[in-house]
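Table S2 (continued). Query chain:
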Amino acid sequence: MKSLESLSKAVIETLREFSSTKSRLSADTLFTALSRKREVLALLKDGPETIEGEQVEHYSRRIERVSLKSPKQTVLTDLSQTLRLVLDTFDVILATIEPIAREENLQRSSDLRLRLHNCQSAESMVLETSEIVATVSSVVSRAAEQIDFANDFLTELGQSLSAMEKQLFSYQNHNRETHMLHDRFCDNLLSQTREMDQAVVDSKAIKDARDVISSRLSIIEKAIETKRQEDEERLKQADSKIAELQMSVRNYNDEIDKVTQRAKELEKEVLLDPLLHINNRRFYDLKIQESIKAYRRAGRSFSVILIDADHFKDVNDQFGHRAGDKCLQEVAKLVASCVRKTDFLARYGGEELVVIVPGANAEEAGRIAEKIRDCIDRTRFYYQDRVIHLTVSLGVTQAQPTDTDAEELFVRVDNAMYLAKKEGRNKVTVV
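Corresponding output:
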């Protein structure tokens, strides 16, 4: 399966390059990009090739072949194996993009994976290639749209902040000018008063003093009236600028509300599984790291339960992927009803669910796991009047001081789950 993993990684890396560069995605451009990948070329060659210090052998060399008299039959066997390898790679690609696909693309991908599963020839696979490209292109395009949306918002936000800064600067200048005019008026008023006082002192006759005082009072009266009119005008201008600033603030708050709502929607799309409507693998990775940090820092113990549906491939083969999806949705609901409100439930991948149980040791988490197992075992799933009896195998483990990272803990719970399957399935194994 190493070749399948290498080919899958090469294809996924290529699709990411298309998304980051916003290049046009089509069958021709995808073929051209893949043909430049040494990993892909190595898988298609007959002989081994060294890539970054590792020897890569052709997939067909690792297939046990049955000696046949006819060379033509041997070629057909190799072709069949290669076809299955390509089909499995396409299936991995579609499964990889499903966590970020919307409802319509999710259903489209599910139907396409079912048709790929039933492909029996290269011709039927080629017929589905354009649909694969279209589905991947749709998901990638939508991801690019979300990036463009975020970039546009940041641009608009920057422009709004710049406009508000100009308005505040203008209002600040307005206040400064008002203060300067007020100081000038007071200085002028004080000067006129001093002149009247000096005129009274210098005048030898009351009539002369009266004339000077009358003249100065007339000047002061006009200055006060002029100041009053200027104050009224500047008050109107200040009110107008404040109203503009308040409008900008309201618009800014409206934009914040819109982008906050959009961020919540994007968060749901990024951290929630679109099929099961529970937390997805990304959210689990964040939560398990947070749990480990809290365990190391404050000794907050926790356990992990891994749940895997038994013989789920048989359900897909007998009833179809749509029936399998419906069963998984109901299983997720049943598990959610069995765990506590403080527990964290997520889809790890495929038909695997994982539960983080904070504050519980392995024994307590084992009881919760047994409750889940019993609930699903007693449930009968109906699809188009057909009964599907589904069971699950569960592994349980508790965080240990020796756990260096989340991967080490998951390997332990994964081994526990596979031990439950080895012992007959429909079991809980605690390690």
